[in-house]
Hints:
It is a single chain. By secondary structure, the protein is α+β, with helices and mostly antiparallel strands. The chain contains five helices and seven strands; from the N terminus they run E-H-H-E-E-H-E-E-E-E-H-H. It has helices spanning 13-20, 23-26, 52-55, 125-129, 131-153; strands at residues 2-9, 33-39, 42-50, 66-78, 83-92, 95-107, 112-121. A seven-stranded antiparallel beta sheet has the order 1-7-6-5-4-3-2, with helices on one face. The longest helix has 23 residues, at 131-153. The two termini are 31 Å apart.
Amino acid sequence: MELSGSFSANVGKDKVVQLLSNPNEFSKCVPNVSEISVSGSNFDLRFKIDASKYTGKFLGASYLSNINVKFSGSIAYSPSDSTISISGGGSAVGVKFSINISLVLSGDNNITKADWKSDVNVGGFAKLFGESMMNQAMSENVDQIISCIKKRLEGSIP
């Protein structure tokens, strides 16, 4: 599944790179993180996804309302082409997934634009919840993360 978009922030490119290439900072925009460990550019996250509005349609699936997710990834920044790459994989309810995100930064000292693209392999989640529901869930979570990143960059949330 591919998702893409762009956002602009009223800050210089250095501040965007500083936030998005630091797993401790970036993870503050991932909902419901309960644990993070960082080693250089590598990181492990543990977080929960509230899936109640998606699983409520399935009889007997109420046990999936709070999904525990384990994710291991890495972040790399390439100054030559102003690209931040976030990639990794994880598992939840016994199903594996992977994600690759690429953000290309442009702009001047006052406004930075980030064009992003993600490639998400949701594996068995599409079979478990249905592709349409997975698309909706992914879009909602990505929108929430992007909104948080923009607010943090512009200083409206710490």
